[in-house]
Design goal:
246 residues; alpha/beta; Rossmann fold; 8 helices; globular
Length: 246
């Protein structure tokens, strides 16, 4: 496979599977040298090996996104940082009255702090034209049985806007993609009947694919989007226009 070579480097967190993996592949096809970050070593190494077999310029670095020293070490393994995609995140289901403080704290730690640290450290290394893309969720609009997830993804949207305002003078764009229900290992961890019920609520009757979300991330990571910053792009087939949330 022949790929372009932009001479630029993109980092993608949560790259062992799902949206993160699809994004790493897409950015590599777009000509970036991609550094794939994830805490899960074996799945990450296997995923990156498959991408490299396709001729894509991707390498794996096992990293805990909530550990600043680990993130610094990962970023310093490259000579430049042009794009940071913060795709790592967790989800679990819990009714509001059953939700524990530990579960709430863990969700915020991974989904918010785990976005903040890589984004901040990347921004410190970026030149004008840098791009940071965070991953929120349509769930930020609200929903039942995952108040902690809703809170974390709403926080990501606020963090994105705040970072965009402060980094605007440096000509670093910061935007967020908010996927709707997407067919990933995380959503497939739900019981099959629950997955089918969620999918049936989608306007198209089916979940998005990780590749469809990755296309939108790649758009915001491209040099052609220099006049877009501080925005959240909902990629959900129109579900956020009204109806039940998931």
């Amino acid at each position: 496979m022949m790929t372009l070579n932009t001479g630029k480097t993109a980092f993608v967190t949560g790259a062992a599977q799902g949206i993160g993996l699809a994004t790493a592949a897409r950015l590599a096809r777009d000509g970036f040298e991609v550094v794939a970050l994830d805490l899960s070593s074996a799945p990450l190494q296997a995923a990156v090996a498959q991408l490299r077999e396709q001729g894509l310029n991707v390498r794996a670095v096992v990293t805990d996104i909530c550990d600043r020293a680990a993130v610094v070490q990962a970023l310093d393994s490259a000579t430049r940082v042009d794009v940071m995609v913060c795709a790592a995140g967790i989800y679990n289901d819990a009714a509001l009255l059953d939700l524990t403080e530990d579960a709430f704290r863990r969700m915020l730690e991974v989904n918010v702090i785990g976005t903040f640290i890589p984004a901040q450290e990347a921004a410190r290394r970026m030149q004008a034209g840098g791009r940071i893309v965070t991953i929120s969720s349509r769930g930020a609009l609200g929903g039942t049985r995952f108040a902690h997830y809703v809170a974390s993804k709403a926080a990501v949207i606020g963090l994105t806007r705040a970072m965009a305002m402060e980094l605007r003078p440096l000509q670093i764009a910061v935007n967020s993609v908010a996927p709707g229900f997407t067919d990933t290992p995380m959503t497939r961890s739900a019981p099959a009947e629950m997955f089918s019920a969620w999918e049936g609520l989608e306007p198209s009757g089916k979940a998005a694919t990780p590749d469809q979300i990755a296309h939108s991330i790649a758009f915001l990571a491209s040099p052609q989007t220099s006049f877009i910053t501080g925005q959240t792009l909902f990629v959900d087939g129109g579900k956020s226009l009204g109806g039940l949330s998931i």
